[in-house]
Specification:
Distance between the termini: 50 Å
Number of helices: 22
Largest sheet: 4 strands, antiparallel
Strand content: 5-15%
Helix content: 40-55%
Radius of gyration: 27 Å
Structural class: alpha+beta
Number of strands: 9
Length: about 550
Amino acid sequence: MSEGYEEFTDSQIKILQRYVTHTTNNVFCLRNLPEVIKGALFSRYSRSSLGLRSLLLKDFILNEETAFVEITGAREDLDQEQVEDQIIGIKKAQNFYDRILDGYGDDSIGELGGGHLAIENISMISAKIIEDARIGGSPLEKSTRYIYFDQKIDGKYLFYREPILLASAFRETYLQTCNSLFETYSSLIPPLMDQMEKKFPKEHDVSKVAYAAALRAKVLDCLRGLLPVSTLTNMGIYGNGRFFECLIQKLNSHNLAEVQDIGKKSFQELNKILPSFVRRADLNHKYQLSFSQFRDQMGNTLKLLASRHCVGLDKMEHAGVRLIGYEEEAPIKVAAALLFEYCHAGLFELQERCKNLSEEELNRILDSSSNFRENRRHKSPRALEHATFTFEIVADFGVYRDLQRHRILTQERQLITCDFGYFIPHEILDTEMEKPYREAMERAKKVYDTIAEEFSEEAQYVAPMAFNMHWYFHVNLRSLQWLCELRSAPAGHSTYRFIAQEMAKQVCHVLPIFFFFFKFVDYEGYELGRLDQEIRIIEKKKKATR
């Protein structure tokens, strides 16, 4: 075999064709391989002189210790017996794969294999806790904009029956309050739909499908605030092994029973396909036990210190956004970082030079990275990450649910409460719908306040999504640019559009020179903003079927 070139026999090529997309090209993909094999294969790959295909043949396919046949299955379609053989095979080969992964002593090896995990019928608050694990995973969650949440199964609305509350004196109060919120949500859909149809009649050149979809989105956006955060949702997550191990460890250590249950079940299922990657998240593993102890000790100590030092401090009384942290020298740092790639000077020296540039020259440098952008999908260079901002936000849970999904930033929230007031859509104000909406909110607040005296964390489940909550963003300019331009788009929800617009405005107010970087923020207001997007979707479908 010559350097950089692999030769295979006809029989080897026949075997490889099942597992690689090309048997001779220097660029190819793996296929039909379980994640445990792909991860272990890439682990070996970094320290082997063999090509990946040769390594796959020699160390895996032809190595009895790997249980390759049992794990991959011999036929195209696996029957139940083969599925069971596959599970047994993975367990049989567990020690082999663990030796490979442990032998490299690098947690990043866990990023070489991944899996798709479905988590169904969990509360919206648990979905947010899962999505707090930011790096290495890609979650998708059931939308409150496109799906009606007024359905029942076996005569029951779909919300989480929190076991601690159901075993307490608050059982009936909790159930009645959640049911009442769903009933109000359901009862307001028809009158609000009628009102929207009258306010926004369909124009003759707009398709019925696009109009109906935009109208439904508008109505459901308005009413989602009535749903309690106990409302059941579904999630799909793709993540690598390292992500899942860290996620499960956090879930196992959480105070809420539901979250612990999700952690336990996630481990059970991922252990079937990624056992070597998630093994340290086993409830009895020393790393899990140590991590849980660390979380408990840290949490208890910080609660004690908070009770000592935070009493009497003011809080944000009203919904809104405020910029509380930035650097005056941020433009200089960004300009120096932009020049760094194109010269041989040191970064410190570049920063010193930029400090002495005229405003005109500094503008030219910053504008160079923005002037040629034609749309928001033209990602700005990494140099923008040298400027960071901290925002404090009070907004309803529905807004948090949308904005929290942005991963390349640091954010933390406080417990969900009913202490910051609630959002009421202007479409409902001064209509017959305002009274039942407000009554539902006030009833829920009273119940929340009562439960929270004894169960502060479990009380979150009864809070409607319209109630404001308190959190912060610590974000670099590059990520902020993406967030503001994306979330201010016409199709977005009006409340998070306002927050995206306000973030951009506040940055440009304190650092006007950064105006360049928010050129695609849409500051307009839209009554039926989803309509244009729905029309574009319909047109794309028509073209695809031609």
